[in-house]
Design brief:
The complex is a heterodimer of chains A (560) and B (344). Helices cover 75% and strands 1% of the residues of chain A. By secondary structure, chain A is mainly α. Chain A has a two-stranded parallel ribbon. Chain B starts with a helix and ends in a 5-residue tail after the last helix. The chains are: A mainly alpha (560), B alpha/beta (344).
């Protein structure tokens, strides 16, 4: 760990418009436009909602949202970082299995797991039924049972499916750490716990922060789960103003306020980290220590790792499978194949594009170091913090005005109407995904890029490589794992994506998620179960492949 | 290297072009933006296509429909919209997104209070918001109106879905329309005081809650009862339905609150004739019968036979207030729900 000069400081600082600057700026601008559109909508005239909201429900929205975020933040941090540290540093029974199994809940959409647990835990469900049978209770007044449709329930559901983000990123960070620094810490008299706390954790901080911020943004803009659990968060408030008060301007104002809040959080973290930069300086990567955990401690480690996997993945999958068998319908299967094809096409394309764009942007910022570019890329990566349906309106605003301008121009000059070229097509949906999920790919790629010491760039450039060659031959191989991680994050999130898809999609077009939604929104989980399983099934394939690659990717691993 | 890049760019461009041509149009068709889920209306649309040869394309969306239509402007592919509530129809009409349709067939098929006087929108089915009462725990005559649910002695005996759900907002709006804001607020506050639990779940879960003994009364739309009572895949729902009676509220005064699902032709419809044909078809005897039998909804005309189950609930008097007047009060209703902290 060294405090090294920044790249921008080490290269010439001249205002030079070249391909990289222009390209990075153009791409950031394109991705940023829908977010800007939302802010513009906020300034269109509409009834003033603030007097009413502040005097009635706004304090509740804010309090609930903060509690939800704190709960999910703490939960995902403990499970994510704890799990990553256990499977990376210790040896215990099943460690190799848990390395990838801990990622599985990621494929489970939060709204699906919420439906499943409500079915299982509510009064009419099997758990309470069995309890009543066991103790001879006959009515709800005779005993107490935790209410699943509550703030606590929402925190539990979201923690269970979101902790893998933190796990994935912190594990990658722990893996990339040199054993040397840990050993130095132990030699200097720190205990295992102290070494974790004062060396490994700070080194992994940028990655953990990115993981947590993804989790918190996802929590902040969740609609399905909080709506189903009747937990009144800020996002629910946005939709209330939009739909019940028919006030899109007011809704956009609330969404913009939420964006400001996210920006403030991000800035606060950056300020706290200030000038500290963490680069790996040593190239000695030995086998990780693999401290043996035997006996009771080993058992404890197994339980700690197994619990989130069982609750977040195994149990809901079993419930869904049971329903799927009960509701099996041959006719549905062929329809499901086509639907799954659509999901794969959208998520796959979006993942590819989001990763390419992220690499280009992150590297552009790195080699140019222009503060304007930096700000632009930051804004472009904010789409993850805007509720999906609101962002969808931003996307339509951008694409429809582009389409209508082209159409207007063509009508005027050539007398032909080109109609809508992009709006209401698959391209619109993919663009929507890009805007929404760029934070995932950009964050992951950028975190990995900052860990590569600028000396590498210098060396490559001195040896006569241009920036593109340097990227391709030096950085990309070093970032391989992170690039794959980024692609997987976008892919899995794309498979689960709902609000953007619903609003932006073409006619007669279903994805697995919209298919699940149409039945689940009517509380017909049975009809939705097969599609929900398909989302989970297609989601876990890249998750497992990736975790195998991550294990192989530890620097130095190929050499041995 | 450079050559490779050119290939990539060309390939990418080709993909984009290919993708954007997906789901582009045939000729004899009609395009719908629908607030009703595809699986609910699919049988009706299929029957329409079979009879007329006109292909129906549909995209379901609840939020963002109005904004998408507005932003797509004159190039919007949508020819008609389908909604499950008067509010959305009214909003589209007010935003100038619909066009007037004059059709002898529609005027004949749909009573005047269920359509826009200017022909901007037409109601296609009627749903009544009723009170479900437990067969034993609710005494006969104990509750006969929405107002009864808000009485102090009802405390802890009533279940409801979110006060912000469009069906409850419309009910409250109808009370504002009938009695003014002050009385509506008192009612909402009273109802809040009667609730056995925080509002949650959909109408179906309220009946389930009555079955489970959480409460004795619940608010709900009629067609859910039909769906539960005939649910072969999840027979336990039959038990839920069996545990309650249906009360049509306010039979002695203004009548039971009803809402409509409906349709309108968009301002820039490219297939206007087909869109009108579709709406006419949906108001025809065949389609109305199908709505009644398949979805347990009330047809817009009295001469269509009801589903036997629905008929068994008996005749009722519906609130005849003009529906657009209810739609006008929605924002106010939503604010009242906030003021009384209905969902907290």
């Amino acid at each position: 760990m060294t405090a090294s000069p920044t790249l921008a400081g080490s290269t010439e600082r001249r205002l030079k418009i070249d391909g990289w600057t222009l390209g990075t700026a153009a791409i950031s601008m394109a991705v940023m436009l829908p977010i800007v559109a939302v802010v513009i909508i906020a300034f269109t005239p509409g009834d003033d909602i603030w007097g009413h909201l502040t005097s009635t429900v706004l304090p509740l929205y804010i309090a609930t949202t903060v509690q939800l975020m704190v709960g999910v933040g703490v939960g995902t941090f403990l499970i994510g970082v704890g799990g990553a540290w256990l499977v990376t540093i210790y040896r215990f029974p099943g460690k190799r299995f848990f390395e990838w199994a801990l990622l599985l809940p990621m494929a489970m959409p939060a709204y699906v797991i919420a439906y499943v647990y409500t079915d299982v835990l509510e009064y009419a469900g099997p758990v309470q039924g069995a309890l009543r049978h066991l103790f001879g209770w006959t009515s709800i007044q005779q005993y107490w049972f935790p209410e699943i449709r509550s703030l606590g329930g929402a925190i539990s559901m979201m923690t269970l499916v979101l902790y893998p983000y933190v796990y994935l990123l912190s594990r990658a960070a722990f893996l990339e750490q040199s054993v040397g620094v840990l050993e130095a810490s132990r030699v200097l008299g720190r205990s295992q716990w102290q070494s974790f706390y004062s060396v490994a954790l700070p080194l992994a901080r940028p990655a953990i922060v990115i993981g947590l911020s993804l989790v918190l943004m996802e929590t902040l803009n969740d609609f399905g789960t909080v709506d189903f659990f009747a937990v009144y968060t800020f996002t629910l408030g946005i939709f209330d103003v939009w739909m019940n008060m028919s006030n899109i301007a007011g809704a956009a104002q609330l969404a913009s306020l939420m964006l400001l809040f996210v920006i403030a959080l991000v800035l606060a973290e950056r300020f706290a980290r200030r000038k500290k930069r963490f680069h790996q300086t040593t190239t000695t990567y030995k086998e990780l220590p693999g401290y043996e955990l035997g006996g009771f401690k080993g058992l404890l480690a197994v339980v700690v790792c197994a619990l989130p996997v069982v609750l977040g993945f195994v149990l809901p999958s079993i419930v869904l499978s049971t329903y799927a068998v009960l509701h099996f319908d041959k006719e549905v299967v062929s329809q499901m194949l086509e639907t799954a094809g659509n999901s794969l096409l959208l998520s796959g394309t979006a993942a590819m594009i989001a990763v390419i764009v992220a690499i280009f942007m992150a590297y552009g910022v790195r080699i140019k170091g222009s503060p304007v570019l930096k700000v632009m890329t930051r804004i472009a990566a904010l789409g993850y913090a805007v509720p999906g349906s609101v962002l969808a309106v931003g996307v339509i605003a951008v694409l429809a005005s582009l389409d209508n301008s082209i159409d207007g121009f063509m009508r005027e000059n050539f007398g032909v109407s080109t109609g809508l070229l992009f709006s209401g097509t698959v391209v619109a949906v993919i663009f929507g995904y890009l805007v929404r999920f760029l934070a995932l790919s950009f964050g992951t790629v950028e975190a990995s890029l900052t860990k590569i010491t600028p000396n590498m760039d210098g060396a490559a450039r001195t040896l006569g490589h241009g920036p593109f060659e340097t990227l391709r031959r030096v950085h990309m191989p070093l970032m391989k794992t992170s690039i794959l991680t980024a692609a997987m994050l976008v892919f899995v999130d794309g498979m689960k994506e709902l609000p953007l898809t619903i609003i932006l999609r073409p006619f007669n077009f279903q994805t697995l998620a919209t298919y699940v939604h149409q039945f689940a929104s009517d509380e017909q989980l049975g009809e939705a179960s097969l599609a929900a399983l398909a989302i989970v099934g297609t989601g876990i394939i890249p998750v497992i492949l990736l975790s195998l690659m991550i294990r192989k990717s530890r620097p130095g691993h190929e050499i041995t | 290297m450079r050559n490779h890049r050119k290939y990539y760019v060309t390939a990418l461009f080709a993909i984009v072009l290919a993708l954007s041509s997906i789901a582009r149009a045939a000729d004899n068709e009609v395009n719908l933006y629908s607030e009703r889920q595809a699986f609910l209306i699919d049988p009706l649309l299929k029957a329409f296509t079979k009879e007329t040869g006109i292909k129906v394309n549909l995209v379901y969306m609840k939020k963002g429909m109005l904004e998408r239509l507005k932003l797509e402007d004159r190039n919007s592919p949508a020819d008609a919209i389908l909604t499950s509530d008067i509010g959305n129809l009214h909003n589209h009409a007010k935003a100038g997104l619909l066009q007037a349709v004059a059709s002898k067939v529609l005027e004949h098929n749909i009573p005047a209070n269920l359509r826009d006087p200017g022909g901007l929108w037409y109601g296609l089915t009627v749903r009544a918001r009723v009170i479900y009462a437990h067969k034993d725990r609710a005494k006969p005559g104990e509750v006969t109106s929405y107002e009864d649910l808000a009485r102090p002695e009802m405390a802890g005996r009533v279940c409801s879905r979110s006060g912000k759900h469009i069906y409850n907002i419309s009910l409250l709006a109808s009370i504002i329309a009938a009695k003014g804001r002050e009385e509506a607020l008192v009612w909402a506050r009273g109802l809040k005081g009667s609730l056995a639990r925080r509002p949650q779940g959909n109408d179906r879960s309220q009946v389930k809650a009555v079955f489970e003994g959480i409460c004795d009364f619940a608010l709900g739309n009629t067609y859910y009862m039909g769906k539960m009572a005939t649910n072969e895949k999840e027979p336990e729902q039959k038990q839920w339905a069996n545990s309650v009676n249906i009360i049509f509220p306010n039979q002695k005064d203004r009548g039971t609150h009803v809402n409509i699902s409906g349709a309108g032709v968009t301002k820039y419809a490219k297939n206007k004739a087909n869109a009108v044909k579709l709406i006419e078809y949906l108001s025809s005897d065949t389609a109305q019968k199908q709505y009644a039998m398949g979805n347990f909804e009330y047809p817009v005309r009295a001469n269509i036979p009801l589903h036997p189950l629905v008929a068994g609930w008996g005749q009722f008097k519906a609130d005849t207030v003009f529906l657009a007047a209810i739609a006008e009060q929605r924002t106010e209703a939503s604010k009242i729900m906030d003021e009384v902290g209905f969902n907290q």
